[in-house]
Specification:
heterodimer, A: mainly alpha, globular, B: about 270 residues, Alpha-Beta Plaits
């Protein structure tokens, strides 16, 4: 039951993008088309889930026994950077179209604070291995949900008549703010 | 001090780095993507300005399209003829590009020729000025505002603002089309450079309105259409259009035009 609550809260209540404001860069950058948004979501989901797993192992089996937990930031970034590099290679090999569409945002997952954020949150909350992975997976699904919804809205906005002053990023930021308010409604869920 | 407090971090973090490095090294072999070696070669022969005039994201994307999809090398209007020949030799295709196109400002509404509706003191940018009431200060709503948005986007330093309108330096112009897109008045178009007979007015207003706003506007008298022996002038929206593929540059229309709105070498010779 607790695992389910962690999972649900990571997706909806503590949505990484809209409640914790982590991972805004790809959220705004790769949300012009639903397909690329889904691609980004899948890539981030993969990286975040795996990162939760590996950072747990690194933290509890290496940093804690050696009493060098203060190095967690460096260790986590190392793990994430290597993972992203790996994902980039896999995507370039398996789906050149997706690779093109994601462009510069793929290596940017490295510096996506959502990925480092989930690792640090797992550590601070004292989750065990399963909970960490579930939390990472849930948070990534929440990110995917937010970015796909946002991309859907932005696709529709393309055809709308928007004031010149609001065209492009201003209206995107306003939309993101309104979505964040909407997600506030989930606060009372759990 | 305990030496282990230094040793452990160095060994553990360093070990992680080596481990990941080895893993990635292996993966890069395993997932290596084969790239056509001609793509970087073609890329080196392109201008590298990344102007986007070809319609691709940049010179890299264009080089890829040329090699893999067989896109015409001449789509890049910026490239020099020598480099195009080299690329053609590299790819084993025939070189031979169509005529060079240059940008042309369809407006002669200089400060002395045209009137202003009001004094404009806003942001010195055509796109901002065009969004103000009346679409800018110029009395003619189709004319060049002369605030230099095209000059700003030109990567080849081919545009200057002279006496209130944009002037193209055809020697420097590469025909990339960036200015055409940037102009909020759509007063710039790409024309074949060898065709020197061009209509330098963009006004679709009726003759009387044109006359009130500007002394070098096309008043829509259609004299040029009647004069042309080669059926090379179209008349649409109160404005003459020259069909460049049919024009023989006989200059008959240039001489006939009452407001001197068709430019030709004849007029240049007079100046």
């Amino acid at each position: 039951m607790e695992i389910f609550i962690i999972f649900l809260s990571a997706i909806l209540v503590n949505n990484f993008v809209l409640s914790r404001f982590l991972g805004i860069c790809p959220f705004l950058g790769v949300s012009k088309k639903v397909e690329t948004a889904i691609g980004m979501g899948v890539a981030v989901t993969f990286v975040m889930t795996l990162a939760s797993f590996i950072t747990y192992i690194v933290y509890h089996w290496m940093l804690v026994p050696l009493r060098i937990t203060y190095l967690y930031t460096i260790a986590f970034i190392l793990v994430i950077a290597a993972l992203v590099q790996f994902v980039e290679m896999v995507i370039q090999k398996t789906s050149p179209t997706l690779y093109q569409a994601l462009g510069v945002y793929l290596p940017l997952i490295t510096t996506n604070c959502a990925v480092l954020g989930v690792a640090v949150i797992n550590m601070n909350e004292g989750y065990n291995l399963i909970k960490s992975v579930i939390n990472g997976f849930g948070a990534a699904l929440g990110f995917t949900l937010a970015i796909v919804l946002f991309a859907g809205i932005r696709e529709r906005m393309e055809h709308n008549n928007i004031l010149n002053a609001f065209k492009g990023f201003p209206i995107a930021l306003i939309t993101a703010g309104l979505m964040s308010i909407a997600f506030l409604g989930f606060q009372g869920l759990l | 001090m305990d030496i282990t407090s230094i040793l452990y971090p160095v060994i553990s973090i360093g070990g992680l780095g080596v481990l990941f490095g080895a893993g990635l090294g292996y993966a890069s072999k395993k997932f290596a993507v084969e790239v056509d070696e001609r793509i970087p070669q073609v890329r080196d022969l392109l201008p590298g300005a990344n102007c986007g005039g070809c319609g691709y994201a940049g010179c890299d994307a264009f080089a890829k399209a040329v090699v893999e999809e067989g896109v015409d090398i001449c789509t890049c209007s910026v490239n020099s003829p020598e480099a195009i020949e080299k690329i053609a030799a590299l790819l084993g295709v025939a070189a031979g590009c169509s005529i060079k196109k240059v940008a042309q400002v369809k407006c002669k509404g200089t400060c002395s020729n045209s009137k202003n509706k009001y004094e404009y003191y806003g942001i010195m940018d055509c796109q901002d000025a065009a969004a103000t009431p009346g679409g800018g200060a110029k009395a003619c709503s189709y004319g060049c505002l002369g605030l230099g948005t095209c000059k700003k986007v030109c990567m080849f330093d081919a545009i200057r603002i002279e006496d209130g309108i944009a002037v193209i330096d055809e020697e420097k112009c590469t025909g990339c089309g960036n200015c055409v897109e940037a102009c909020p008045k759509a007063v710039i178009e790409l024309v074949p450079q060898i065709n020197q007979v061009r209509v330098v007015c963009n006004s679709k207003d009726k003759g009387k309105d044109v006359k009130e706003a500007c002394s070098v506007g096309c008043i829509g008298c259609s004299l040029c259409v009647k004069t042309c022996e080669y059926n090379a002038i179209d008349f649409k929206d109160n404005l003459a259009h020259i069909k460049y593929d049919q024009c023989t540059q006989c200059m008959a229309c240039v001489q006939k035009c009452p407001t001197k709105v068709i430019a030709g070498q004849l007029e240049l010779a007079e100046l």
